[in-house]
Amino acid sequence: MGGYRYVTELWKKKQADTMRFIRRIRAWNYRQLPRVHRAPRPTRPDKARMLGYKAMPGFVVYRVRIRRGGRRRPERKGVIWGKPANHGINHIKNRKNLQSIAEERVGRICTNLRVLNSYWVTEDGSNKWYEVIMADPRHKRIQNDPQINWIVRAKHKRRECRGLTSAGKKHRGLRQKGHLAHNARPSRRANWKRRNTTHLW
Predict the structure, then answer these.
(1) What does the pLDDT look like over 41-62, one tens digit per residue?
(2) Cα(66)–Cα(195) distance, rounded to whole angstroms?
C-alpha cells in the first residue's frame, strides 16, 4: 500500500480528533487569506492526483472560499412585483452546487488557464473551501503530455461555465442513467426543445 493510500484513509475519518483539529486550524488560516488565492501545493495530494493533477510545470492549484447556505433572492428590500406565488425570498435553493460556483469564480479570475477539476478541502459554519486544479494550455509541458493535452483544444475554453467539469455534470443530472434521467440528455433545455418543437416534414 503506497503512501497516498494512507493519506486517503486519513481523510475518510473526518470526525476523528486529529482531523477535526487540523480542519479547525486550516479554516482559521484560510479565513485570513483572500477569497481566491493560489495555493503553493495541493492540500490533498492524493485527491488532486486522482483528479488529474501532476507536480510539473503547467499545473496550478487555486483555493477559493464560498459562502455556505441557500440562495437568497436578490430583490431590493424583498419586494417582488409579481404574483404571490413568486414572493419567496429566503428558502430558495441554488440550482448549481457550491463546488461548481467555486470553479466558475476561479475561472473568471484566471482567464488564461483551464479548469481541470476541483475538490473539497474544509469548511466551517459560514464557508466552504475548495481547491481548483488549473492547467495552462500554452505551456509546452501541457501541450506535449498525451494524458492532458486534450484540454488545449479551443472547445474546452470556459468549460466550468458550461457544466463540463465533474461538479458541473453533477448539478446537470448527468450522474444518473436510465428512467431516472430521461429528460437530462443531451441537456434539459435541448431535451425540452426537442419534445416541444413541431416538425412539418
Answers:
(1) 999 999 999 999 999 999 999 9
(2) 37
